[in-house]
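Long-time lurker. I teach an intro course on protein structure, and each term I like to show students one example going from raw sequence to a predicted 3D structure in token notation. This year I'd like something fresh instead of my usual example. Would anyone be willing to generate the tokens for the chain below so I can use it in lecture? Attribution to the forum is fine with me.
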Amino acid sequence: MIWLGFVVLAFATLGFLLWPLLRGQRQAADRKAHDVTVYRAQLAEIDEELARGSLTEAEAGAAKLEIQRRLLRADAAAEGKATMASRRSVIAGSIAVLLLVPVLGGGIYLSIGRPEATQADRAAMQQRAAQEAQIRAETERMITQLRERLATDPNRADGWLLLGRSLLATDRAAEAVPALDRVIALQPDEIDAYALRAEAQTLAADGSVTAAAQRDFRAVLERDPQHPGARYYLGLARLQEGDTRGAYDDWYGLAADSPADAPWLDVVQARLRELAPRLGIALAQAVPEPKPALQAAPGPSREQMDAAQQMSAEDRNAMVRGMVDRLAERLQENPNDADGWLRLARAREVLGEAEAARDALRRAVAAAPQRVDARLALAFNLAGATVTSRDPLPAEAAAEFGKVLEQAPDHPQALWFVGRSAFESGENAAAAAAWTRLLAQLPPESAEAKELAQRLAGLPR
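-- Reply from a regular --
Happy to contribute to a lecture. Here you go:
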């Protein structure tokens, strides 16, 4: 189909270019033929006048000479042939160029281009559209089923929370607000409901952080002073009210408190750079240094690795144990080194010493109770093989996952295992609450989201 378009365009261009030339040639030829005929008729009339005696020989000769000059100029046989040849050359050259351009262009496109791209892109677009339509249909079906369930059991706070999240995810913010109202009415301390309702109110107002949304965001900060979403939107509210300096200060504090790998950091830093010129702040000082991202503990040096490759297995194990023992001795002298205890725990696990690793993790948690990574590592160590088996989670592991969730309310792994532990204990409402919060974080089309949605739908009521 695309080649037919190329051909049509080429011939259309050829016609537009050649039409004036051909039309001019035809008009010029017609004009010369007319002039030659007239002049020859005038010569014949002079001969007749001379024969009748109306003109003398001198007069007839002078008149003929003038008409012959005009006839020669009009006929211009030699010049006409040259002009015709030139025009033929122009026409032939134009046709050749206009035919060669699409042919050469098409050849180059075939050699270095992607002729199949149009069909491939169209197929990919159709596939994506079909997938999106399927996701929308599944989401709508889930929303319909959820509404029906809540009509018969209107006191399920987790169900209203899931409905609010689903409506918000499908760009129906105004519809999400009443559902989240029900959650807060049933569970006034549900922080996620306040944050979601405030976001829904903001989106429903075309991005304007309304007074009601600000009240909800402040309620979130009362329960979690570091909540990034609430801090960002309250800064936006200040900007919308004309308090540029207040917005900048709020966002500067948020950027300074955020780790370098925080997903919202780029947005906050961009807003800071946007506001800095208005406040006379140099761009070099507009953005604070974020907190360092959590990095994996350093491993052995290159020299140590090269040396280990030359050792026997027994010597290598002895070297590793020697390094681990020396690390343990140093930690006895500096027991508040949480990173050191975490490195020791990993080394113990590599050596197959699960109990010793657990002791090191407990020391890491004691040294830095606020470290989510340390507590999470302890929870996984306590869970052991039950993480991947159908056996119930040990109570101590479940408790540690719960403590992780207290420090990081949206931590996905903690939400999963807290929900799983509640389900194994028969606490279906608690399981639904944790899994509903987790579901909101997963891409709707992912296999994990579909599996989790099925688990939620299958929970006993």
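Some talking points for your students: The chain has four domains: 2-112, 140-285, 294-361, 369-461. Confidence is low (pLDDT under 50) at residues 294-299.
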